[in-house]
Amino acid sequence: VPGKGAALNAISSHWFKMFREKGLADSHILDVPHPLVWIVQKAKPVMIEAIARQYITGSMWRSYTKGERDFCGIKIPDGLKQDQKLPDLLITPSTKGILKGIPGVPEQDDVNISRSDIEKNYEAFNFKSTADIDLYEKLLKEGFDLISNALAELDQIFVDTKFEFGYVKDREGNEKLIYMDEVGTPDSSRIWDGPSYREGKVVENSKEGFRQLLLKHFPDPDILLNKYRMEERK
Q1: Does the pLDDT value for residue 225 go beyond 70?
Q2: String of b and e for 37-51 (b: at least 16 CB within 10 Å)?
Q3: CA distance 14 to 12
Q4: How far apart, in whole angstroms, are the C-alpha atoms of residue 231 and residue 39?
C-alpha cells in the first residue's frame, strides 16, 4: 500500500506525543528524522499483547457464538449481540511470542492469558513488580480513553486495539514503564464509522476488510482463525 509505512508512523507518533503531553507515560521514540524513520530508545518489552475491547466483534464474537463466556478470566453474560458495546472496557491480554515454562500457559504464540496468570508469573512476563501490572492496566485504559475521545470528535468509534509496553532507563538509571511498538493505527486497531454504526451498518477503517476478503476465499477459514492450527498454515 503506497505510503502505508509513513502513515502508520505518523499516527503512532501523534498518539505517543499526546500520551506524553497529557502526562500518561513516555514512549520509546526519541526522534523522527524522516517519515519512515524512528530513532528509539532500546526497551525491554513486557511479553504481553495488551488488548483492550469496547465492543464485542471480531475474534471475540466468533468465540462467543461458539459458547465461550470466559475471556481471559473475565465472565461476560449471555444475550449479547454482534457489534454491541460492552458495559466496560475489557482487557484481554495474550502472550507476546512463545513463552516457555509458565504454568497453565501453552507454549504457543498469541495465547490468551488472565490477570491471574500474569500475577502468579509476573517475572516471566518481564514485569518488575506486581504493582506494575496495575500500572500497565491503568496506562492501557488511559491511552484507550484518550484515543477514543479524540476519534469521537470526528464521529469515529474506537472499537478495540492492541498496546505494547516495555521498560527503559531514565537519566538517573531508574527503570520506568513506557508505551512502545505502535498505537492507535488501523493495523493495530479496529475503528468504525460513527454515522454508519448508528444506521445499523459497520464500516471498518482498519485491516478487517482485507481479513474478511481472505477468509471468504480460503477453503477452510478456521485454519486462519484458529491459533491451535498453526502447523496447517505452512
Answers
A1: no
A2: ebeeeebebbbbbbb
A3: 5
A4: 36
Residue given cell 514485569 in the structure block: 127
Superfamily in which the 43-203 domain is placed by CATH:
ATP-grasp fold, B domain (3.30.470.20)
51 contacts: CB under 8 Å, gap ≥ 6: 91, 92, 93, 94, 160, 161, 162, 163
Q: Please tell me the distance from the alpha carbon of residue 29 to that of residue 220, in angstroms, as a whole number.
A: 41
Question: How is residue 114 written as a grid cell?
Answer: 488472565
pTM of the model: 0.87
Question: In this predicted model, what pLDDT tens digit does every residue of 167-215 receive, in sequence order?
Answer: 999 999 999 999 999 999 999 999 999 999 999 999 987 665 544 544 5
Judge contact between 161 and 196, C-beta under 8 A: no
Structure confidence at residue 231 as a pLDDT band (50, 70, 90): low
Burial of 52 (0-12, 13-18, 19+ CB in 10 A): buried
What is the C-alpha to C-alpha distance for residues 48 and 96, in angstroms, rounded to an integer? 5
How far, in Å, CA of 93 to CA of 112, rounded?
A: 6
| Of 200, 210, 163, the residue nearest 185 (C-alpha) | 163
Arithmetic mean of pLDDT, 64-90: 97
